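Our preliminary data section would be incomplete without showing what the modeling component actually yields. Below, a chain of 544 amino acids is followed by its predicted structure, encoded as tokens that our downstream tools consume directly.
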Amino acid sequence: MSRKRRNQAQREAFEELQQRKKRKLENARDRQSLDEDGKTRSRKRRKNKNRKNVRRRGRAKPHKVGLTLVTIQAIVSMLCVGMLHIIGIIPLKYMLIIGGILLLLLGLTLFTQLNRKKKAIGGKILSVVLIMVISAGTYYIGKANGALDKITGGNYKIDNMVVAVLKDDPAKDIKDTENYTFGVQYKMGRTDMEAAIQMVSEELGKDITVVEYQDLQEQAEALHDKKVDAIIYNEGYTDNISESFAGYKKSVRIIYEHKIKKELASTSVDASIQEPFSVYISGIDVYGEIQQTSRSDVNIIATVNPKTHQILLVTTPRDYYVPIPGVSGGKDDKLTHAGTYGVDVSMETLEDLYETEIPFFARINFTSLIDIVDHLGGVDVYSEYAFTTSKNSEHVMDVQQGINHFNGEEALAFSRERENVPGGDNQRGKNQQAVITAMIKKMISPQMLMKANSIIDDVSGNVETNMSQEQIQSLIKTQLSKGGSWNIYSVAAEGTGGKDICYSAASSGPLYVTYPDETSVANIEDLINRVEQGEIIEGSEVAE
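Predicted structure:
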């Protein structure tokens, strides 16, 4: 090949190489351009997606869990308001406030779910806490309503018939008395005694041998003289026996009990609480079952005028020597002995004494007084004298003249003391009035009335009244709604101490009694009439 042709071939090869490089470079530029366009479109797609996500978050639907919690909260809130309505002590204005607060809390939790950030965990926790709190409150309101039902509508008493043997007797229970002779008496309740004899006979599978005595004291003496092996009597009369038979309680042992439930003879509950009414407050000297027949050591009549806010507290000494209607046949006995025949008999005795009507009663025992005072956070009680309580009060303490702050145990000791205080039993009655006055002062405050449910719940087993649940609810509701102070006037029946024969313990010989002062009795009758007629008694203590 000639040189000219070789040079021509080289130039053509070079030009073709340059063309390939040029095409390769152009292809690379085209690919880069395409990549950049793709990235741009990708960025635009991501940006648009983010914008869509933002819009979705702005109008996001709440979680199903959140809505479920809000629904449950709404239900328990409605149940709470419904239970408050049923309990019936909250005035309408307070119901509206409580309902408004519950509605506001419901709206708050609903808002946290509709306008949530992330998962709205805080809103869910708030809802759970509110559900728990409202549910617990509703439960305790319902529980207190049940407790109120327990203490109201009292219309029966329990007579606990027992069989007692001497403490060293070998009999451990009633089955060991198959061949025993039983001492009985029918004066203090033939029907109950016959029922008890029948029950013992059924337990032993045969008719028992009985010896009849005139009264409790003869029964007790026959047992201690071993004229009989055992005696049957109403346990509520134990203190009656002990009055004339020193050491009786420690010398015997109870081996059998038979409870007899009976309707009270007279417990009118039709009286209006919007008009003046009277309540017999009976304090029984026991810690046991509130319905059990027992002597009444506290005998106070509270005459209440709800229109004038006047309360009259009348204390009658436990040893007041008066006839017991329907029981003693006109013969006199101690007022405290009337309680052993039933709270209705005590009410009738006081009605006859003061010529008034007492439609309602409230019975409390030692346990309930302690619990109520402690729930009130203690009470400030005025004492006329400085003294130290005795061991018989079951709590030795120093009482100063003037105002004393007592807890439940101290208030009870102050109320029971009669040995170391001037005036003995008469002053004890005044001290009991002072404790009740202090309790009323504390209880009429809105803060304490709102706690009425919890107080009633805790003392339901140790308080009894024949007031209806609706009547008590109405009293609390009226005070919460209208408020206002009360005027409390206290008076104690006076008399002269002495010894005389008591119907319920005739064979015991003369017992200590208090002969009524007729002038004092007439003055109390007049005060009751004046309160009922709407007069504010001068010298009343104001409770706000």
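Residues 218 and 507 are 7 Å apart (CA to CA). The first strand starts at residue 156 and ends at 166. Preliminary results of this kind motivate Aim 1 of the renewal.
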